[in-house]
Amino acid sequence: MKVFELNKLVRESVRKLQPYSSARDEYVSDGSEMIFLDANENPFDNGVNRYPDPYQRSLKSLLAEQKGVSESQILLGNGSDEVLDLIYRAFCEPNQDNIITLPPTYGMYKVLAGINSVENKEVLLTTDFQPNVDEILATVDTNTKLLFICSPNNPTGNSFKKEGIEELLKSFNGLMVIDEAYIDFSKDESWLSQLKQYPNLIVTQTLSKAYGLAGIRLGICYASEEIIAVLNKIKPPYNVNQLTQQRALQRVLNQDLVNQEVKQILQERAELIKALNSLKFVEQLYPSDANFVLAKVDNADKRYQQLLKKQVVVRNRSTQPLCENTLRFTVGTPEENKKLIAILKEL
Ligand SMILES: *Cc1c(COP(=O)(O)O)cnc(C)c1O
């Protein structure tokens, strides 16, 4: 195996960058009473009149403890989408470097490649929705910086086999981003435990799905200290606001409630799968390791419109490769699920 040299992957401009130093970078509170006259804030306390902690130390300390990593291995962002964008901007030289994505998959990887003027090389999943390892490795060239793996994958719902991912981690000399937005619904273990083993591994998670906090925008990136240090250089100083940090902290502390909700969602998923399987117009149901189910139907456009008329919005994924005539159903509350199933049976 080749030696992994992170510095060779970092854009030259980022390597040379002297990051902006904010007021809260230069003075870090140790908890004692101080008079803060350093950041031109309004001094009258309303709960959010001060700039937030640019490094979100309380939240990171809690996540570090729960996930068994060090705080310096965590970067937080305004949703995973910001985290992913920072990864592009740190490592991909516009109009020169490229990335590899594996459609059908999460649409943001491609959009971010476009925004950052980075070529997106697409290698389709196999027909059973697994990475085509040989073809991926054959597609890598000297300018391939990133490989995006979404597992469990959106919109297909399945997790990727461990062996394939391991082979890619060992053979690919760029950075491999494993997007674990749905990991809390999965039977499989997170790749977080493998960070020590693979210096080229980045794992992203989010509070938007299982944690029920899509509205506060909190995405999490776990990687080696070296990778996180590079990303910290380019992140906007106050990218995660005070209200988000507070709400995230409360929720992450309340792990029992999150677990209970996940359990309920998984029970409802089983009910939904049973109902979908009994429908004549459902031709195939794909295995799900997430909080949604992808179904191949007789006519996705027609079924989508019928559901809309009944006030139910699902996602039509038919434009995605390998996903012709598919609808993606997110698992709702027990009441919503009951209504959906009743409506489906009447179509
Ligand atoms: C929903 C989703 C995310 C979450 O993005 P946020 O910006 O954190 O809300 C990330 N990746 C995938 C694959 C998703 O489906």
Question: How would you explain this protein's 3D organization?
Answer:
By secondary structure, this protein is α/β, with parallel strands linked by helices. The chain has two domains: 6-22 and 53-253, Type I PLP-dependent aspartate aminotransferase-like (Major domain) (Aspartate Aminotransferase, domain 2, 3-Layer(aba) Sandwich), CATH 3.40.640.10; 256-346, Aspartate Aminotransferase, domain 1, CATH 3.90.1150.10. Helices cover 37% and strands 15% of the residues. The chain has 13 helices and eleven strands. The chain has helices spanning 6-9, 12-16, 23-26, 57-67, 79-91, 108-115, 133-139, 162-171, 225-234, 242-253, 255-277, 300-309, 334-346; strands at 74-77, 98-101, 119-122, 144-150, 175-179, 201-206, 219-222, 282-285, 292-297, 315-316, 326-330. Strands 1-7-6-5-4-2-3 form a seven-stranded mixed beta sheet, with helices on both faces. Strands 8-9-11-10 form a four-stranded antiparallel beta sheet, with helices on one face. A hairpin with a 6-residue loop joins strand 8 and strand 9 (292-297). Pathway: Amino-acid biosynthesis; L-histidine biosynthesis; L-histidine from 5-phospho-alpha-D-ribose 1-diphosphate: step 7/9; Lipid metabolism. Its EC number is 2.6.1.9. The modification N6-(pyridoxal phosphate)lysine is found at residue 209. It catalyses: L-histidinol phosphate + 2-oxoglutarate = 3-(imidazol-4-yl)-2-oxopropyl phosphate + L-glutamate.
